[in-house]
Amino acid sequence: MPGYSTRILTIPVAGRDYRIRALSDLQQFADPTGRAQRAGIHSSLWSLFGQVWPAGRVLAETMSSVDVAGKRILELGCGLGLASLVLAKRGADVVASDHHPLAESFLAYNAGLNDLPAIHYRDLPWELPDTTLGRFDLIIGSDVLYERGHALQIASMMERHARPRAELLLTDPGRGNVGAFSRAMAAQGYAVDEAYGLFDDEGDAPGRGRLLRYTREALPALAG
């Protein structure tokens, strides 16, 4: 037994049903080798990756129609991988990333549930530079600004991994860290457009959930 229980969810996205293996509830926890502890994942946060949250649904819906032709795409904090699965179903060149010790295995399982080939996965702690990852045309994430320090970490990720005309799409349920992040992105030349009214269930932040789209004009070519 793995030490935790799971369930299979059916998630409709843009008229197509996706089957997702998720943790049974927020009480699940198993870290027999201490890998989560070494990654800095507290037991109270361990199970959060294993659910499909409203922000993840909105991001997946957005990925069902975004232009993917010729683009290299990176998902930050992929969790169970719903948005990356939607992109893979469309034939996109996507890399899913997370730092939870079970994210890779759940992503692989969910790809199989949906008759998709394995999705390229990277263990990607945001605070540590990865010189082998390269650069992307589109970077996405759902509810990734949940701690104050994440604003600077993800802005730094954009500096390291965004191509000159890269776009960033984030869904945020209203954590309160968007302002600091948008200022950090403005320092890199990005402007932001915000769309509201996309969340069916916004939990403790009704009316504050939004889709954030960061874009910038062309910059001199960067290596990678």
Helix % is 10-25%
> What is the arithmetic mean of pLDDT?
92
Rg is 17 Å
Query: What structural category arises from helix and sheet content?
Result: alpha/beta
Main sheet: strand order: 5-4-3-6-7-9-8
Q: Identify the overall geometry.
A: globular
Residues in β-strands, percent: 25-35%
| Largest sheet, strands/sense/barrel | 7 strands, mixed
The H/E string reads EEHHEHEHEEHEHEE
Characterize the structure shown:
By secondary structure, the protein is of the alpha/beta class. The chain is 24% helix and 27% strand. It is built from six helices and nine strands; from the N terminus they run E-E-H-H-E-H-E-H-E-E-H-E-H-E-E. The strands form two sheets. It has a seven-stranded mixed β-sheet with strand order 5-4-3-6-7-9-8, with helices on both faces. Helix 2 packs parallel to helix 3 (82-89) and helix 5 packs parallel to helix 6.
Helix and strand topology:
Elements: E1 6-13, E2 16-23, H1 35-38, H2 54-63, E3 72-76, H3 82-89, E4 93-98, H4 103-113, E5 120-123, E6 136-142, H5 150-161, E7 162-172, H6 178-186, E8 191-196, E9 210-215
Parallel strand pairs: 3-4, 3-6, 4-5, 6-7
Antiparallel strand pairs: 1-2, 7-9, 8-9
Helix pairs in contact: 2-3, 5-6
Defining key terms:
7-stranded mixed beta sheet
Quick summary:
With 224 residues, the protein is an alpha/beta fold. Helices cover 24% and strands 27% of the residues.
